[in-house]
Automatic annotation (TrEMBL):
PANTHER family: ABM DOMAIN-CONTAINING PROTEIN, QUINOL MONOOXYGENASE YGIN-RELATED. This is Quinol monooxygenase. It comes from Variovorax dokdonensis. It comes from the Bacteria. Residues 2-99 form the ABM domain.
Length: 102
């Protein structure tokens, strides 16, 4: 199994628009062969900001894939290319961590 933690930082004030595009793409991703989990997460409400907070402009994507090949096919899919094109001007940075169980 492959785990992915993607840290996506939108330009100031753009996170809601990026998340809207992300959520619109989720059904297509979940339908992909080998996709086990794919969801966006943000700081939990009700907690004070801390060194571990990701902030108002950032969200993380938590993903699980059956194999590296499934993840690679995901990255090359037409719907991910369209999502990237739609959001590219709204993003400040993107860091993708591809992990496997220890």
């Amino acid at each position: 199994m492959i785990h992915v933690i993607a840290v996506i930082t939108a330009k100031p004030g753009q996170r809601a628009a990026v998340l809207e595009a992300f959520q619109a793409n989720v059904p297509a991703v979940l339908a992909e062969d080998g996709c086990i989990e794919y969801q966006a997460v943000v700081d939990a409400k009700g907690l004070p900001p801390s060194k571990g907070s990701i902030g108002e402009d950032t969200f993380m994507v938590v993903e699980k894939w059956a194999s590296l090949a499934a993840l690679q096919a995901h990255g090359a899919s037409a719907h991910m290319q369209a999502y990237a094109a739609k959001t590219k001007d709204m993003l400040a940075s993107r860091m993708i961590h591809v992990l496997e169980p220890a």
